[in-house]
Design goal:
Elements lengths: L3 E4 L5 H11 L5 H4 L4 H5 L3 H12 L5 E7 L5 E10 L15 E9 L8 H15 L7 E7 L3 H10 L1 E10 L2 E11 L5
Helix pairs in contact: 1-4
Length: 186
């Protein structure tokens, strides 16, 4: 694999925006993301600037990793949110332990199956577990019940279903399945 896996830098907000908008136009977007293209494209520049700066802040609780090709094009991305006990979770109640929540997973179609997704996940999980020298006790993500391709990758990487389900915001009839990664993996 020829891609450099690294965190986003604060000044890369235009690339963050471009990749997110591309992800939201992917055919799987309706079951992969909680945001729509129409909402994201209407966001002002300062939203994207804040998003990139927040993800790049040293010691912050958010980190976005990208796969950058030799030509400078971003092949994909994954974002890690650190969730603390007693705080509200992205989907439902907050955690009982300090944990990482992987969100915003996207790899361009032409780079799927090349090792880019595995490399992004390895970097994200490694950062979460080693954060501030303490790491997290748990790594999780949610996958839509109608997204078997993503679920198959997560299982291959080592995630297992926890048994927890959450309603999809805006579509209470649909469910997101929580998957967790055991500490021994990676």
């Amino acid at each position: 694999m020829e891609h450099l896996i690294r965190p986003v830098r604060a000044d890369e907000w235009r690339q963050v925006r471009e990749l997110r908008l591309l992800a939201l136009r992917d055919p799987a977007a309706p079951v992969a993301f909680l945001e729509t293209y129409e909402v994201a494209v209407a966001r002002p520049d300062d939203f994207w600037q804040d998003r990139a700066a927040g993800s790049a802040a040293p010691g912050g609780s958010v980190r976005q990793f990208i796969a950058e090709g030799p030509d400078g094009v971003w092949a994909g991305s994954v974002t890690v949110l650190i969730e603390e006990p007693g705080t509200q979770g992205v989907l439902g109640p907050g955690p009982s332990v300090r944990q990482a929540h992987l969100v915003g997973v996207f790899v361009r179609a032409e780079h799927r199956g090349t090792g880019v997704t595995e490399a992004l996940f390895s970097a994200a999980v490694g950062w979460a577990r080693d954060r501030d020298g303490a790491g997290v006790e748990r790594v999780r993500l949610f996958v839509h019940e109608d997204n078997p391709r993503a679920e198959a990758f997560y299982r291959k990487f080592g995630f297992v279903a926890s048994g927890e389900l959450a309603p999809v915001p805006g579509d209470p009839g649909a469910r997101e399945r929580e998957m967790v990664l055991e500490r021994a993996v990676v």
